[in-house]
Amino acid sequence: MSDVESYLAGDGRGSRLFYSFVRNLVTFILRTYCRMRIEGRENIPTAGPYVLAPVHRSYIDTPIASACTRRRLRFMGKDSLWKNRTIGWILSALGAFPVTRGSADRQAVTRGIQVLQSGEPLVLFPEGERKAGPIVEPLMDGAAYIACKAGVPIVPVGIGGSEKVMGKGAKFIHPHKVVVIIGEPIPAPPSVDGRMPRAAVKEISLQLHERLQGLLDEAIRKAGS
Question: What pTM was computed for the model?
Fold first, then answer.
């Protein structure tokens, strides 16, 4: 059994109930304080693994992502946060799983694929760290590679207004309308002799970039930001 499979095997009913409670609370706050509206929920698969790929402009993008579906989403977190057993349990219950910070990207890729192969949906921000402004930065290929390697679809998500709520470097949360638009899934290309050609991954990454820019433009317009 792999590290991630072992970690998921310890997943109990209590942690799932905790996740559901926190998700519902956070969603309520976002809808009340930020007037959050989500469009395109029908584009999210109701079963099976997939990669949810939102743009990243705010500290609140992670809770916004969790509000997109009632299914528990998985997120990567630096393993040092799991040193405290209580904090580790909370993070695990909220969908996070540990990845060694500063390690080779191979570990993050391997664990991401393992999560997807276990049937869980995974959130990856394809721009990497938080960005600023209305232009989608060139994407890192990690999200596309992991989705292609696991043979799962990528669901692009545009988030408008979250940068006004709490953008990069902000210390306080400001009330501002947030609009989330979920795009149609991008299916993973078929493998060739069990391998995924680099050109195919690059093509998926380019498609994702184009979709994200269109969704971000529309979300920003509707959010009035």
Answer: 0.89
CA nearest 185: which of 29, 34, 48? 48
Segment 5-28, tens digit of pLDDT:
545 545 667 778 889 999 999 999
Tell me the pLDDT tens digit for each residue of 52-91. Answer: 999 999 989 999 999 999 999 999 877 787 888 888 888 8
Asked whether 124 and 55 are in contact (CB, 8 A), the reply is: no
Lowest model confidence (mean pLDDT) among 42-51, 78-87, 102-111, 203-212:
102-111
Return d(Cα 148, Cα 186) in angstroms, integer: 10
CA angle 125/130/133 to nearest 5° reads 110
Residue 62: what are its φ and ψ, rounded to 5°?
Answer: -65, -50
Domain with residue 57: its CATH number is: 3.40.1130.10
User: Structurally, how many domains does the chain consist of?
Assistant: 1
Token code pair at residue 161: 């207004």
On whether the CB atoms of residues 181 and 40 are closer than 8 A, the answer is yes
Question: Which distant-in-sequence residues (6+ apart) come within 8 Å of 66 by Cβ?
Answer: 23, 26, 27, 73, 95
Task: Return the H-helix or E-strand segment holding 116.
Answer: helix 105-117
**Angstrom distance (rounded) from CA 113 to CA 32:** 36
Domain housing 29? 3-223
